[in-house]
Structures are given as C-alpha cells and as structure tokens.
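Can you make up a protein sequence with its backbone structure tokens?

===
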Amino acid sequence: MSEVAYSSALDHIVFTCVDIAFLHGDRLLLAKRNHYPRRSWWIIGGRMVAGENPIETAQRKASEEAQLHHLATERFQYIGVYSTSFALREQAPVHHGSHSVNLTYQVTLSEPETHLLQLTSSEYDSHYQWMQLSQISELIDASSPLDQALLQMVQDLRIF
C-alpha cells in the first residue's frame, strides 16, 4: 500500500495492534519509542497485518523488535484489550493522529532471555529499562491519557 493510501486509511479506520508486556520477576520492560504515534515509554508491539492472528503478531513483534525468536504460543498470556487515541502519527498529515485497539499479552522471561533481548534501533532509542512494577507511575505522566492506558495495562498484569 502506498504512503498516500495508508495515510488516507488512517484518517478513517481504527487499526489493531498487539502489545507485549515482557516481565522478569517484579520488573516490566519499558522502552522509549522513536516514532509516532507514541514517542515515549511503552511496551513492545505494533500493528497486526492482514491474515495474522494475535499470537502470530505477538511472536513476530517479539522477534522483529526484541530479537526474541521462537517464543512458544503458550507463553503469551492475554491481559486485555485497550483503546488508544493518538494526537500525532508518523504519516502525513501528522496532526490527524490515529486510533488503535491494542490486544495485549504478557510473557515472563527467564534470566538468560533477558540477556538475549535487544531492541530494534529503528523502533526504539537506546533508553529501555526493566522497571519495578511499583515504580512505573514515577516514570510517566499520570495526567496523560496514553500514560493512563499504560498504567491500566500494568494494573491488569497477572503476577504469579
């Protein structure tokens, strides 16, 4: 699809994303995104493509964006669905924003897997960190609707 056609589509549709909350102990991986619609702290993930089911998208995003290849389907535990509206987007006209529905999963990583994890430099800047769940509210702006969505995701995590 051309950039012009995609930009036009974004003006008229709600797209679906799959996000992954990577956990290790009582810590959640948060990364600073390089691109709109979210240029701030978020979890790993992105848009579904036609023909994929949500778990396939989650596996693809884990592989493409975090270099975690071949995570078994049963490791992805469904957290919930969230609606996120963005004021800006990467595609022109940027001020038109976009709206997504985010199917969100959590994956608990082993210690060796945390060392294999490498975020894609094109998607994320060099700032990512494992944050204690209890400290995430200190990192973000609780008055921002998108940060409120992130806090809701954190509250909905199933910690065993």
Notes: The longest helix spans residues 54-66.
